[in-house]
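> example.struct
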């Protein structure tokens, strides 16, 4: 089976210059994930877990929690 590799576009040099405090590899990964301004980068790298992720955004999360609690109570 042949694999087709897709390589992300290289970031612009201005992006490296804008954030000299970060390694170039880290900046490339951030750029690839469309994190391109200081606030988004700071939140992604140094924010609190609660700031970046809300588990209740998953479909049927409340149902899953209720089922889990039910099984714990029944010791299954």
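> example.seq
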């Amino acid at each position: 089976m042949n694999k087709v590799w897709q390589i992300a576009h290289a970031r612009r040099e201005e992006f490296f210059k804008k954030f000299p405090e970060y390694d170039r590899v880290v900046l490339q990964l951030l750029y690839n994930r469309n994190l391109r301004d200081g606030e988004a980068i700071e939140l992604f790298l140094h924010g609190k877990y609660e700031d970046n992720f809300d588990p209740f955004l998953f479909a049927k999360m409340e149902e899953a929690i209720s089922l889990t609690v039910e099984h714990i109570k029944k010791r299954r």
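> remarks
The chain has five helices and no strands.
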